[in-house]
Design a protein that fits this description.
By secondary structure, the protein is mainly α. Helices cover 86% and strands 0% of the residues. The chain is built from 3 helices and no strands. It is elongated, with a radius of gyration of 24 Å.
Length: 64
């Protein structure tokens, strides 16, 4: 019984450690310069496309 409780505690500790690593890796990926450049290029190419609906064009001009 005691051995099983110790195994459960160590298993939970390993899971917590993996979760911390996972969150840290996601933050690194989100803040990566390559991803930012790719998003900027995508936004620039989308901005060049014509708006399909007139009210979207008016809304985007009002926001600028």
């Amino acid at each position: 019984m005691y051995d099983q409780m110790e195994k459960d505690k160590s298993y939970e500790a390993k899971l917590e450690e993996l979760l911390k690593d996972k969150e840290r890796i996601y933050e690194i990926i989100r803040n990566s310069p390559a991803l930012k450049r790719r998003n900027e290029k995508a936004a620039a190419s989308l901005a060049k496309l014509p708006r399909p609906f007139p009210w979207e064009k008016q809304k985007s001009e009002a926001n600028s």
